[in-house]
Amino acid sequence: DLLNHAIELNVRFALEEDIGAGDITARLIPKNQSGHARVISREPMIIAGKPWVNALFQALDPAVQLEWHADEGDQVEPDSPFLHLHGPARSLLSGERPALNFLQTLSGTATKVRDLVGLLVGTRCQLLDTRKTIPGLRIAQKYAVSIGGGRNHRLGLFDAFLIKENHIMAAGSITAAIKAALLISPEAPVEVEVENWPELEESITAG
Fold it and tell me: How many of the other CB atoms lie within 10 Å of CB of 135?
């Protein structure tokens, strides 16, 4: 599915980017030496990114064993060990940075979202995400938003209409833009960014 495909691509690119033809510094360690590592939090955080970390070490070296002490979406307090790893020392050293990059980026997103969602408790508002994501990590960051309690908006330019000021100017009017959208893809959601009450009324009237 879309999520698993994104994880596979993200992990492959991360390993290619960081390790390339091989980790020459890890070769300082004897090939058969085993090691263990633990990951701890430095501040309160929401865990997000476990599927990426699991997939990364599976791709890098299936001999690495991961023992998680927190579930995805759990709140972790400062100085809490939430992941232990055991396996070949070279693989632990080579996978450390790309694994932490996924964990830190996605947990950071989920943690911030959880804070913002908390501000909306008692209201009828929902927190939506945007397309302003790190290139190549859109699915990952939108996943982290959902872990933090936010809601995913459109994934890209292909699955929903979001008619903005420039679209309205090019189409001639809000009504013309909406009519064109309904003809192009009747099943796709249509949203319009409005700046005043008359624009809102025109959008509603146009369906």
Answer: 5
Which tokens is 41 given?
A: 């939090």
Question: For 115-183, where are the E strands, in sequence order?
Answer: 161-163
- pLDDT score, position 63: 97
CA distance 95 to 83: 14
Alpha-carbon Rg for the chain in angstroms:
22
- Label residue 51 by pLDDT band (50, 70, 90): very high
| pLDDT at site 107 | 98
Count, residues in the chain: 207
Structure tokens at 169: 């100017």
Among 145, 149, 142, 157, which residue's Cα sits nearest to residue 188? Answer: 157
Beta bridge partners of 181: none
Which amino acid does the sequence have at 190? V
In contact, 95 and 11? CB cutoff 8 Å: no
Task: Concatenate the DSSP letters of all residues of 9-41 into one string.
Answer: HHHHHHHHHHTTT--TTGGGS-TT-EEEEEEE-
pLDDT computed for residue 32 by the predictor? 93
Is the separation of the CB atoms in 34 and 63 below 8 Å? no
The token pair that represents 191 in the structure block: 């949203």
Q: What does the block give as tokens for 73?
A: 């979406």
Per-residue exposure over 86-111, b if at least 16 CB sit within 10 Å of its own CB, e if not: ebbbbbbbbbeebbebbbebbbbbbb
Q: Which two tokens stand for residue 16?
A: 């290619």
